[in-house]
Amino acid sequence: QVQLVESGGGLVQAGGSLRLSCAASGTIFSSDAMGWYRQAPGKQRELVSTITSGGTTNYLDSKGRFTISRDNAKNTVYLQMNSLKPEDTAVYYCAVNRVRFGKRYDYWGQGTQVTVSS
């Protein structure tokens, strides 16, 4: 099993920055992707960014205001968010995305609230 604990959310004014962290415990395979998703009120959960252990990144939009990074030794993933906008307000979830023997497994953190005021 995998347990994920996020931290770093909070209230920030538009144009500000936040850095989210997510520490994973349990077994993390080198083939696991780690990432961030978010869910705004009344909307579906959406991908923000993922990163492989080799550092390959994927972003919902082209890389710009957000930067994902990963420390494999610490099983920790980070999301640096700059130039935040009110529409970035959401609960941000850390995830481990795993494919083993043809099956996909997703593990989720409890979420951390990010609120951007205008």
What labels describe this entry?
118 residues; mainly beta; 7-stranded mixed beta sheet; 4-stranded antiparallel beta sheet; 11 strands
Task: Describe the structure concisely.
This protein has 118 residues and is mainly beta. Helix content is 0%, strand content 59%.
Given helix and strand content, the structural type is mainly beta
Note the gap between the termini.
40 Å
Mean pLDDT: 95
Question: How many beta-strand runs?
Answer: 11
Hey, roughly how much beta strand do the residues contain? over 45%
Number of helices: 0
Rounded Rg = 14 Å
Parts with pLDDT < 50 across at least 5 consecutive residues: none
Succession of helices and strands: EEEEEEEEEEE
Percent range of helical residues: under 10%
Q: Quick one: biggest sheet?
A: 7 strands, mixed
Shape: globular
How would you describe this protein?
- With 118 residues, the protein is mainly β.
- Helices cover 0% and strands 59% of the residues.
- The chain contains no helices and 11 strands.
- The chain has strands spanning 2-7, 10-13, 18-26, 33-39, 46-51, 57-59, 66-71, 76-81, 90-100, 103-108, 112-117.
- The strands form 2 sheets. Strands 2, 4, 5, 6, 9, 10 and 11 form a 7-stranded mixed sheet that branches. A 4-stranded antiparallel sheet has the order 1-3-8-7, with no helix packed on it.
- The chain is globular, with a radius of gyration of 14 Å.
- The model has no long low-confidence stretch (mean pLDDT 95).
